[in-house]
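Weekly structure sync, notes
Attendees: PL (lead), two postdocs, one rotation student
Agenda item 3: pending single-chain targets
PL asked that the sequence for the first pending target be pasted directly into the notes so everyone works from the same version. It is reproduced below exactly as submitted, 161 residues in total.
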Amino acid sequence: MKNEGPNVFGRMPAVPKFLASLLLMLALSVTAAAQNRKISIDMQNVTVKEFFAEIEKRSDYTFAYNNSEIDLAARVSVRAVDEEIVAVVDRTLAPQRLRARIEGNRVVLSPGRAAVPPPSSAKPVKAEKTISGRVTAVSADRRGQRDRQGDEHRQRDRHLG
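Predicted structure, written out during the meeting:
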């Protein structure tokens, strides 16, 4: 008897062997695609075009965009360690108000608010529960005004009730 190495499938019929092999290959390809969505990059004062070229070189993705909606000569700086490509691109292109999404092996850029806005000097926002029980976000300036209004409403309700 010839020894041909370990027989993984044993005496399994041909169709289930084929299906098991197909599922194994599919699982491996999904794992490879999921790993490719993250990137580590450190670039300072480069053009958007150079930024795109570096992402394309380090991943299997290409960029799709409308030339009239993007300034490829704009200078950007980016530092990311093992971050999602979409998040890195969104953060880097936020000043141009572009949003990235992945479709197949393309990073598609479209106008709109970026998913990860750049850091801003806006006043802190706090979530507050209203009298009706809904939660709303209120800036520090509006909190004082709301507190005064809430006191007025509570006093009126006590007076009426």
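Discussion points:
- The mean pLDDT is 73.
- The helical segments are 14-35, 48-58, 85-93, 140-160.
Action: rotation student to compare against the earlier draft before next sync.
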